[in-house]
């Protein structure tokens, strides 16, 4: 028999759209909760008029693949997919070696030898290493930056960012972030059904990431969803990869209770309690069919739509005022796992998009303010969304 519990999911980047697998790529296993990737066959039925009243035939005119993959959030495990959904060309990475003075009162790191790169200055979070006092090391939130001075705020786990003054310390400042872009990358996604007596391998080639969603509810796991659009599905009795797969990440899943730092609204900790957050990114991909070709030439990219919902207990009028006055706001959602690894989502400009008034729905209920939002391009920040990911 074929049990869902005996299914493996793995992937590899393609070098060309929907290329015929040549067994040259090592597949990377990925942890998942569910998937609905399926082949799609487009047919037309003959409309020939026949005296015997039967259909003359069914003709295949096209094919494709589509579906979604649901996962629990594991920091660092889905970086490839998140970057693909953002259509980012890759992470912007910096590693600046400087001699610096640390001022724990002003919460500043001042370079006296060397400078901070433009990449570091554009980061939302940085990692400090090399400080004499170990409490000055670790992941910090960047408040402002120049080529010589970084101002930081409390860490994502709370407390002072910089604890002890230092002079002449040799520091390494690293950053790692990705932004929305215009680079469409495609993948081979393989499903390995190990249950049958002869294992089956389904591979969706030409897989583009059309959607990425994050759901965070109180006292629950943080979940992700990746919506896929593919060229077609292959079926065989051998893997489409090369040799043994690379094993999936073994890091812990994260939850909304112990792994979420202070949620920031306009750069300051949200003053009210959050009951739920969700976001959905849609690239509005489309197929490009052509005469003489069974599946799409490639996938065309549309406008990035980034929407979401911020549900809070109605404890003050800050978010209601955003809605009533049509005032934009920014969001920063930092998530840190038990080991200290960080993933953050920054949306620099968004508007409450529809009704946002608090309502009393009935007795024995809480008043929840639901703020459905639409993100827009921020000309100052230069992006629609930025994700930072740092490992300890």
Mind sketching the topology for me?
Blueprint: E1 7-13, E2 28-29, E3 34-35, E4 38-45, E5 58-72, H1 79-86, E6 92-103, E7 108-113, H2 118-121, E8 125-129, E9 138-145, E10 149-153, E11 166-179, E12 187-193, E13 200-217, E14 223-230, E15 232-236, E16 264-265, E17 268-269, E18 274-282, E19 286-287, E20 299-300, E21 305-313, H3 318-324, E22 329-336, E23 342-352, E24 368-375, E25 386-390
Structural features, described:
With 392 residues, the chain is mostly beta strands. It has two domains: 4-48 and 56-88 and 181-390, no CATH class; 93-178, Elongation Factor Tu (Ef-tu), domain 3, CATH 2.40.30. Helix content is 5%, strand content 46%. A hairpin with a 2-residue loop joins β16 and β17 (268-269). The two termini are 43 Å apart.
Strand content: over 45%
Radius of gyration: 25 Å
Domain module tally: 2
Strand adjacency order, main sheet: 6-7-10-9-8-11
How helical, in percent, are the residues? Answer: under 10%
Task: Look at the structure and give the mean pLDDT.
Answer: 95
Shape, principal axes of CA atoms: globular
Number of helices: 3
Class per helix and strand makeup:
mainly beta
Number of strand elements: 25
User: What are the segments in which pLDDT stays under 50 over at least 5 consecutive residues?
Assistant: none
How is the biggest beta sheet arranged? Answer: 6 strands, antiparallel, barrel
Distance between the termini: 43 Å
Please write the string of helix (H) and strand (E) elements. Answer: EEEEEHEEHEEEEEEEEEEEEEEHEEEE
């Amino acid at each position: 028999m074929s049990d869902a519990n005996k299914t493996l999911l793995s992937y590899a980047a393609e070098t060309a759209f929907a290329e015929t697998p040549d067994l040259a790529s090592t597949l990377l296993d990925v942890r998942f909760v569910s998937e609905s990737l399926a082949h799609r066959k487009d047919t037309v039925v003959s409309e020939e008029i026949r005296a015997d009243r039967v259909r003359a035939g069914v003709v295949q005119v096209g094919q494709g693949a589509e579906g979604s993959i649901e996962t629990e959030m594991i920091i660092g495990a889905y970086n490839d997919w998140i970057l693909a959904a953002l259509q980012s060309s890759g992470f912007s990475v910096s590693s600046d070696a400087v001699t610096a003075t640390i001022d724990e009162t002003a919460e500043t790191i001042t370079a006296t030898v060397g400078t901070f790169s433009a990449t570091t200055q554009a980061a939302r979070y940085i990692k400090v290493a090399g400080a004499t006092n170990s409490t000055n090391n670790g992941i910090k939130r960047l408040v402002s930056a120049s080529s010589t001075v970084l101002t930081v705020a409390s860490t994502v786990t709370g407390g002072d960012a910089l604890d002890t003054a230092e002079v002449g310390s040799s520091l390494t400042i690293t950053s790692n972030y990705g932004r929305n872009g215009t680079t469409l990358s495609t993948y081979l996604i393989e499903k390995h059904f190990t249950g049958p007596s002869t294992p089956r391998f389904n591979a969706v080639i030409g897989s583009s990431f059309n959607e990425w969603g994050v759901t965070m509810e109180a006292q629950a796991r943080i979940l992700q969803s990746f919506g896929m659009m593919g060229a077609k599905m292959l079926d065989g009795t051998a893997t489409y990869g090369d040799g043994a797969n690379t094993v999936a990440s073994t890091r812990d899943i994260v939850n909304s209770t112990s792994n979420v730092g202070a949620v920031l609204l306009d750069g300051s900790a949200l003053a009210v309690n959050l009951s739920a957050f969700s976001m959905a990114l849609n690239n509005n991909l489309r197929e490009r069919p052509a005469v003489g070709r069974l599946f799409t030439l490639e996938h065309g990219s549309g406008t990035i739509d980034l929407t979401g919902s911020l549900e809070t207990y109605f404890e003050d009028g800050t978010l209601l005022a955003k809605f009533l006055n049509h005032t934009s706001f920014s969001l920063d959602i930092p998530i840190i796992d038990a080991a200290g690894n960080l993933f953050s989502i920054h949306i620099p400009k968004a508007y409450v998009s529809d009704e946002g008034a608090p309502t009393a729905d009935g007795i024995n209920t809480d008043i929840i303010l639901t703020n459905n939002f639409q993100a827009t391009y921020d000309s100052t920040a230069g992006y629609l969304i930025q994700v930072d990911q740092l490992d300890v």
